[in-house]
Amino acid sequence: MRLLERMRKEWFMIGIVLAIAGAKLEPSIGVNGGPLKPEITVSYIAVATIFFNSGLSLKTEELTSALVHVRLHLFIQIFTLAFFPATIWLFLQLLSITPINEWLLKGLQTVGCMPPPVSSAVILTKAVGGNEEDEKASRYNWLSFHEEFVRFSS
User: Fold this and answer.
1) Are 80 and 115 in contact (CB under 8 A)?
2) pLDDT interval class at 136 (50, 70, 90)
3) Euclidean distance between the first and final Cα of the chain, in Å?
4) How far is the C-alpha of 108 from the C-alpha of 72, rounded, in Å?
């Protein structure tokens, strides 16, 4: 019975491992034009569903209380959009004098400038028993940033 409880608690990680194992065993299911149609399902449906579900899980009271966490929002924006990319850039400057492939460095720079996925942050914060008030505030912060980013890039 203890194993079943552990599996219920770690359902997300088990699901990730099973998805990776399934992709390794049968990669043709997830290729472009394959049965899952990832060019549509991943690009549009999955992303929209994640943000829609995340938004639905926020209560109006939590949204209004999250608005007062201005310092937290400012910290998240500066850390995610300035400090981390600048740190990665400095690290890449050091790596550029090594024989590492130039395209690998460009890929690392791209990934270093991308904010973390909100869905993973929500699940992992809850899994480790993190501060849910700050998590909710940061989720609101990320959702509003993402909305502005999508609006700006359209």
Assistant:
1) yes
2) low
3) 51
4) 27
**How many whole angstroms from its chain centre is CA 22?**
22
Residues 56-103 pLDDT 10s = 777 777 777 777 778 877 887 888 778 888 898 999 999 999 999 989
Question: Is pTM, for the whole model, over 0.70?
Answer: no
Query: For the chain, how many structural domains are there in total?
Result: 2
Q: Are residues 47 and 3 in the same domain?
A: yes
Q: How far apart are CA 111 and CA 76, in angstroms?
A: 17
- CA 5 to each of CA 1, 9, 10, 11, 17: distance values in angstroms, whole numbers, following the listed order: 6, 6, 9, 10, 18
From CA 70, how far away is CA 102, in angstroms rounded? 39
Indicate whether 142 belongs to any domain.
no
How many C-beta atoms surround the C-beta of residue 64 within 10 A? Answer: 10
Mean pLDDT taken over the chain: 78
Identify the domain containing residue 36 by its residue range.
1-57
CA 109 to chain centre: 17
Answer for the pair 38, 30: CB distance below 8 angstroms, yes or no: yes
For residue 43, the model assigns a pLDDT of 76
Per-residue confidence (pLDDT) for residue 15, from 0 to 100: 93
Identify whether the C-beta of residue 19 lies closer than 8 Å to the C-beta of residue 107. no
Does 52 lie in the same domain as 10?
yes
